[in-house]
Automatic annotation (TrEMBL):
PROSITE patterns: TUB_1, TUB_2. Residues 104-363 form the Tubby C-terminal domain. This is Tubby-like F-box protein. Belongs to the TUB family. It comes from the Eukaryota. It comes from Dioscorea cayennensis subsp. rotundata (White Guinea yam). InterPro entries: Tubby-like_C, Tubby_C, Tubby_C_CS.
Length: 368
């Protein structure tokens, strides 16, 4: 019997999603690493109605981190508590909150953007994604994901992980990667788990399948292509910012909260069509003599890396097709020497938004 005592954010250092109460439960393990059966029975025999009422009150009273760690602790008590918690806690699309690791691969909020920021370490070529806890740029934030840049022959790869200290593709915390061409103008985004049933993983020796205990223990991890990002060449060197286009296979609107059964993974028909995003064209400000976009106070430093992505225009002849060129689905901009803001919303997930933003780092002589 698999009991989730340490599946959420126990690998995080410093800003772990696990609470002290969760750690206390972890200490009651037997010699084989499983929690003693009598301890599990003690918690699981509680009346389901009482369990649900407890979790509802915890959920409603702790909307923001760091207090939200108690919701994670409730889900880690035993299997029955986990089942009740998954039925109470709403996904980011509805609640606007990130609770479990799987929330990082679920669509963002519908009505407002999820505000995050990225810290860069140039010396180690690492990037850290944090959830903003306040409206200022001074808060420490809640650690979500980390990425490290590697040079692989003529290509560059960014390994994305749940663990800030374990950034390897063979790690249990591995959630996906980003791979670029030689010029750094075209990128492919890979997810560690299949986006739909029957999806084929990238077939190469370095992308072998391995067990992932963090996002979805029952689904073997690999590298499954979920999106592409390309930057348009600027051969005549005209003035202006970079022009980019993204094609993403976004997660479905309704997904399980913590773990999912591979038999119930969405079929290709159930997954929405790939979403095409384009950067919004800035306007030239004659007085300031620069290109300008309205970031609503979330960007304070002019940079060629700054961008806003919106849904590209679609063919109106296609039934059921929708497009909104005005709504910004992802914006990324500089606020310090090594600090950048990242705001995303539905249909993108935090993982996808982070991967797209990583493509903006680095010099692109062919595009500037």
């Amino acid at each position: 019997m698999m009991l989730l005592r340490r599946p959420f954010f126990s690998s995080y250092k410093g800003s772990s999603f696990a609470s002290s109460s969760l750690c206390a439960v972890d200490d009651r393990r037997d010699g084989g690493g499983a929690v003693a059966e009598e301890d599990d029975d003690r918690w699981s025999t509680m009346l389901p109605e009482l369990m649900e009422e407890i979790i509802k009150r915890v959920e409603s009273s702790e909307e923001r981190w760091p207090l939200r760690r108690s919701v994670v602790a409730c889900a880690c008590v035993c299997r029955h508590w986990r089942e009740v918690t998954t039925g109470v806690v709403r996904p980011p699309l509805e609640s606007g909150t990130i609770t479990f690791p799987s929330s990082l691969k679920e669509p963002g909020p519908r009505g407002h953007p999820m505000q995050c920021f990225i810290k860069r370490n140039k010396k180690t070529s690492t990037y850290y994604l944090y959830l903003s806890l306040t409206q200022t740029f001074a808060d420490k934030g809640k650690f979500l994901l980390a990425a490290k840049r590697f040079r692989c022959g003529a290509h560059t790869e960014y390994i994305i992980s749940l663990d800030a200290d374990d950034l390897s593709q063979g790690s249990n915390a591995y959630v996906g990667k980003l791979r670029s061409n030689f010029l750094g103008t075209k990128f492919t985004i890979y997810d560690s788990r299949p986006p739909y049933s029957g999806a084929k993983a990238l077939s190469c020796r370095t992308s072998r399948r391995f067990p992932s205990k963090q996002i979805s223990p029952q689904v073997p991890a690999g590298n499954f292509e979920i999106g592409k990002v390309s930057y348009k060449f600027n051969l005549v060197k005209t003035r202006g910012p970079r022009r980019m286009m993204c094609t993403m296979r976004c997660p479905p609107a309704q997904t399980p909260i913590i773990d999912e059964d591979p038999k119930s993974t969405s079929s290709p028909e159930a997954v929405s069509r790939p979403v095409v995003l384009k950067n919004k064209a800035p306007r030239w400000h004659e007085h300031l003599q620069c290109w300008c976009l309205n970031f609503h106070g979330r960007v304070t430093v002019a940079s060629v890396k700054n961008f806003q992505l919106a849904a590209a225009a679609v063919d109106p002849s296609q039934s059921g097709s929708t497009g909104d060129e005005e709504t910004v689905l992802l914006q990324f901009g500089k606020v310090g020497d090594d600090m950048f803001t990242m705001d995303y919303r539905q249909p993108l997930s935090a993982f996808q938004a982070f991967a797209i933003c990583l493509t903006s780092f680095g010099t692109k002589l062919a595009c500037e």
